[in-house]
Amino acid sequence: MGEDTTEAAIKGTSRMVPLLGYAHMGDFEDEGDLCDEVEVPAAVADAHPRGFMVHAQGGCMDNRFPHDALLLVDPDMEPVNGQPVLAETADYGAVVRNYTRGRSTVMLTADSHSGEYDDIVATTDDDPVVCKGRVVWYMGERDERG
Predict the structure, then answer these.
(1) Who wins on pLDDT, 36 or 136?
(2) Which of 7, 24, 2, 30 is nearest to 87 (CA)?
(3) How far apart are the two ends of the chain, measured CA to CA in Å?
C-alpha cells in the first residue's frame, strides 16, 4: 500500500481583532497612536466575531483588570448587572465600569482597591449612558516577566 502523503491542514491558534482606541478606568492619559489590531486566542475571537479591543488605562477597575489592559468588548452581548461594560457618557467619554440597571437609573461603578472613584449615575433626566458592549476577555498590554 502506498504511503498517505496528504498534508493535514494546520488550524491557527490565534486571530487578529481590531483595536479601536482608548477607554479609561480612572485617570485618562492618551499615550499616542495605537496599532490597529491585537492578536488573541482563536477560540476567544471565534466566540465573539464582532468583538473589538480597547486599551483601558487607569485604576478604577483594578480589582478586575490591570492598568493598561487590553479588553475585548462584545457589542452583541447585552449588559448584565454587576458585569463590566464599555460605556460612553457625555461627561466621562468612554469608560469601563461595572454596570447596574434599576427601574429608572443606570449606575456605572468602579471596582478598585482604593475606593476613591465616584459612581456614574444616570436617570431619565440625564444625558444617556450608551453601552457599547460587555467586556468578555482581557490581557495585559505587555509581558510582566521582563
Answers:
(1) 136
(2) 24
(3) 53
Question: Taking the CA atoms of the chain, what radius of gyration do you get in angstroms?
Answer: 19
Q: How far apart are CA 54 and CA 19, in angstroms?
A: 6
pLDDT at 60 over 50: yes
Q: From the CB of residue 39, how many other CB atoms can be counted at a distance below 10 Å?
A: 13
Place of cell 452583541: 76
The pLDDT of residue 31 is above 80: no
Identify the DSSP state of 124.
T
The answer to whether 56 touches 19, Cβ cutoff 8 Å, is no
pLDDT of amino acid 30: 45
CA distances from 65 to 17, 72, 82, 143 (A): 19, 12, 15, 15
7 pLDDT exceeds 70? no
**Euclidean distance between CA atoms 59 and 113, whole angstroms:** 8
